[in-house]
Fold S-adenosylmethionine-dependent methyltransferase.
Amino acid sequence: MKKVEIVLSSLPMSGGDGPNSYSKNSHLQRRTTSLLKEAIDKLIIEKLDAKTLISGSNNTFRIADLGCATGPNTFFLVDDIIRSVETNLRRSKSTKPEFLVYFNDLPENDFNTLFTSLPRDGSYFAVGVPGSFYGHVLPRSSVHIVVTVAATHWLSSVPKDVVDKSSKAWNKGKVHYSNAAKEVVKAYENQFGRDMGKFLEARAKELVSGGLLVVGMCGIPKGMPFSNLADGIMYTSMAEVLIQMQSKGLITEEQVDTFNIPIYSPSPEEVTFLVEKNGCFTIESMELMNPAAWLKRPMNVEDVRQWMVCIKATMGSLFINHFGDHVLDEIFDRLTVKLVGLTEKIESSYREKLMMFFALKRK
Amino acid sequence: MKKVEIVLSSLPMSGGDGPNSYSKNSHLQRRTTSLLKEAIDKLIIEKLDAKTLISGSNNTFRIADLGCATGPNTFFLVDDIIRSVETNLRRSKSTKPEFLVYFNDLPENDFNTLFTSLPRDGSYFAVGVPGSFYGHVLPRSSVHIVVTVAATHWLSSVPKDVVDKSSKAWNKGKVHYSNAAKEVVKAYENQFGRDMGKFLEARAKELVSGGLLVVGMCGIPKGMPFSNLADGIMYTSMAEVLIQMQSKGLITEEQVDTFNIPIYSPSPEEVTFLVEKNGCFTIESMELMNPAAWLKRPMNVEDVRQWMVCIKATMGSLFINHFGDHVLDEIFDRLTVKLVGLTEKIESSYREKLMMFFALKRK
């Protein structure tokens, strides 16, 4: 049971509940969750043998949300899942179980905010689980449904090669694999493969036989370059902003060249390959969805501003950790201005099916 | 499964890990834990059928520490328990189980500090459970050993009557039932009875049959007045300090009269009565111990200072909540000076068997 030690350069979401916090600026993530609601509900009602699961488990149904951050999205998601499980159990005329919900995130996550904002209606027992989901965070066969939304596109770390000057994958002057050399793309892809491999291995141990693993994350159609996406345009602009700031002496070249955002969007085919390689799951669902309302078109200045507030709440700690907190606002102010000038280009970017939803059942 | 709503005037320990934090000033509690170590070890080895328990539980052994605060004492305690369970299982030639440890405290406890200081040796899975242990915090039959040290003498709230001007139990000008009217003592005693009743009821649900409930807390021999204790002298001095500060206009009379410390020391006979009333447990151990090294005699100025640093870390938030944080230091500075003048009296106080240890087995 030795836990995997992981150097995490992907930091937790901004804590607390202030105006710049994740808890106050995660409404885009909330929309994603709503979109998933229907798919998850259908899955739980049709594919889960809840009656058998609780009978082997003291009448307690256990759910884990991995990468829960500080709420409130995790609470909505958990409520939806519990309602679906209850519907499932009503149909099979089972006794109402007790629910135990494991809220997992990195140990550095702001669990204090999570815990003080937990719903207190007594509909479930809530516990917090500190630890990286790229390792085991719960005992063997201890959970019936694992869900993770908007979390598994975060890599466990920046691929080593992209910050190694001597490597062909050295990603000088860029912040992501979007628009980068093919070696950089490959380094990210490999890192994702290793991470998702560890993720599936850990979940295979933690889930009971017949349990479900439900994942909502960034995705991309097979073969499409990331630079076709609005986020691709954003990362390119981000690199330009950093280089501008470097030229003004606000940050160093070394800082710019070693900064990379550890986010990866796989295709359904990539994930399918990794699931089959793992061998412990059957695939119940694997699709790309359209996160429709994400960015309206035509896009106005306020849309860009809102988008950036969300990105800042989500990635802020990554910038603070690398550049210091004194330049965070300037980076995002400059980035917002730059993107406001690119709305036409962003509008014409591919923004259709960029949310991957997949559901696996533990054999 | 409706959770009991409890108005908590007993606040969590001081958070963080700074010089005034609980985590840096709980060495007196640590000594208490060491004293308990031997008793708990003996109990687990002799009274626990660990083999049967894990066989009905997926080979996972579950331990809960209720009122864990921020560490590090809870980590030592849990390590000791795990070692004892392992010894027990080795003797019965059982497979080594996985351990899951539930760390519980109030939702306002500093779980962030707890989680970032967790040992990362992978010897157990750690989860945090926010909630008052006077209600249910875990599902039915979900835990094998519950331990709680230095926590259950904290009442769920100040007894209502002691802050009610129209009641005979109104505790004007005092901060505790030590040296107070018999109605005040009775109000505290009743509150403890109700709280311990709820505590036992919740644990009876959460523990599996054959599971152990192990408690270390403040105690007192039957019939002894609290004023015979060093803590009694401290509470009397505390009230005097508050009245002095009131006369200087630093705090109000209303504030002084409504401030009471919700701590109660029961006798073994009181606890035995409550356990028998509950009916779900057998008593495996019930004794008063001597927390020997607590205060050395003869007592010097440094001993008093250390004692007060501990009390401040433990009770500080109670004072801050009631009087505001601007007077905290002054209260404790004055109290320290006063107690330094009373060392002779403190030395002659009863300080023998003031730690209660009891262990119950779920029928």
